[in-house]
Amino acid sequence: MKCKPCLFTIGLLLWISFSCSEQKPKNSLFPETFKLSKTILADKIKGGWAGQTIGCTYGGPVEFLFNGTMIQDYTPIPWPDGAIKKYYDTFPGLYDDVYMDLTFVRAFERFGLDAPLDSIAQIFARSEYPLWHANQAARYNILHGIMPSASGDWINNPHADDIDFQIEADYAGLMSPGMPNTASAFSDKIGHMICCGDGWYGGVFVAAMYSLAFISNDVNFIVSEALKTIPAESSFHQCISDVIGWHKQYPADWKQTWFECQKKWTQDYGCPDGVYASFDIDAKINSAYVAIGLLYGQGDFSKTIDIATRCGQDADCNPSTAAGILGTMLGYSNVSEYWKKNLYEVEDRNFAYTSLSLNNVYELGLKHALQVVAKNGGQVNDDEITIVCQQPQPVKLEQSFPGHFPIDRVAINKHIFQIGEFSFLGIGVVFRGYVQSSDAGYVARVEMSVDGVSVETASLPVSSSNARRTDLFWKYQLPKGKHTVTFNWLNANSDAMVNFVDAIVYSDALSCK
After folding, report:
1. Which of 512, 504, 491, 335 is nearest to 426 (CA)?
2. Nearest CA to 489 among 466, 473, 511?
3. pLDDT, position 2
């Protein structure tokens, strides 16, 4: 489905072309400054937030139903009337992409652009919305005194490379039009509260693409220049660089590029749910799917959102990101009514667990972007905005789980009293499991000892709780060799049970290559 460009689009493209051509420094793809009206800036910000919501909804029905396989063309993905309202009413947790963003928008509105991270962390950790993976692990850490950035560090967060910050970094780019390095700075503190390594890079990359979408209508430029914010030595950079290269090699076949990604970049060494499984919530591969959607969509909203969804895995978050970036590039006014029709009945409704609606965040987004423009040397004069543009610079190099490679997943399927001693050969272990109790407020207190030495006493809420721990226990960076783990349930309760599902064992090299 393609939309004919309206007069607004044609005029905008001509105006942008003029702005860039007039102000480019020598030997640079970037304008030194970029001018646009407040009306156009507002329209782009509105398009970014609307695009996120549309994309998340479109991919909702197929989220994690196609893991390790693409969604074939013959598989229908419907877009019925009332689709967004239906999710608002029945499964508001679908919009974790958006309500996490809104947490940060609200914090900046309350505390200013330099909002203290401790304040943001407490708002995030004590929120009522459901969370998963790195977000939930970070929430647990903060509630138990492990504050940012330790809360997102892989030593304390087995999900550090997961997609979580990638899907909620939109705020940083939408606040920083034409200023990708400022977007990286906004991503730094909050991103490391939740993730590190590739998990952080996913958010930095996404925020940079949003930022560049304000000053360019070329998706190839947006993707390739945003990648410059990621250190070239990182595997994340190498993965997205491969996508760009495969797009050039197979310009008419997104499925071939998808297949090349599957062959090379789908090893998940971190997420305990994804190791030795087709499930892959790693930021690197899901960012690759976003890039595939943008590059092969070539500015067409319908094509972009569909390809990003059909890549599979986190098939609501990836089209949400791609549609948000493209919505920013096109502007709300130039998104087809086919897609916007489902927005109208919810734009005045607050997202669940928040006090903000889309209409609210359209206004706050413009307000914050104008503040950031002015703070970074730009001009805000009546209806004309002048942005001092930034050429992307790489953030610091970091890696999660260095030297740690999964070598085994050991099935346990026992409750805590049946385990006795658990022995393994390696340098680390993660135990997956859950706590069940007839008392929803019960919190198990369990001590883990390794080789006879107590290493942690954890508080483990029941698994239905928003305060739950994502994984029961983990320990990395052990000396290589045989280790024995034991558990002591300090407040055993006849109405509760601590259940162990399995253990993932790590060593300093893969057991087979």
Report:
1. 504
2. 473
3. 38
